[in-house]
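Researcher: Quick test of sequence recovery. Tokens follow.
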């Protein structure tokens, strides 16, 4: 999978450098991939997932550890946020930033 990723990156670079794909069309491709193709692939993968192969212990550990990290970051943001800032919104943003990662690759 890693070699396929590098081949696709190199192909995209060559297509852009040679002018085969213009800047305008690359923006369209990016929007299509971000808003249509990748969510469709993710949904398809999750819809056909065989839950018998999922280790629930790992799933519970991930959820508990994310809750702990998010809580700690929200508390830290609340303590260090200045009064002129909206403390609750800062807490939520920092908490989400620390926990929203690429968990799709786990398992």
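Model:
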């Amino acid at each position: 999978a890693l070699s396929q990723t590098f081949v696709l990156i190199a192909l995209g670079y060559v297509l852009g450098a040679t002018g085969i794909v213009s800047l305008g069309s690359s923006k369209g491709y990016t929007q299509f991939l971000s808003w249509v193709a990748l969510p469709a692939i993710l949904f398809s993968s999750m819809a056909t997932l065989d839950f018998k192969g999922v280790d629930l212990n790992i799933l519970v550990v991930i959820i508990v550890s994310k809750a702990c990290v998010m809580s700690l970051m929200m508390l830290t943001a609340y303590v260090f946020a200045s009064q002129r800032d909206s403390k609750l919104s800062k807490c939520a943003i920092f908490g989400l930033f620390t926990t929203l990662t690429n968990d799709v690759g786990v398992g």
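The mean pLDDT is 84.
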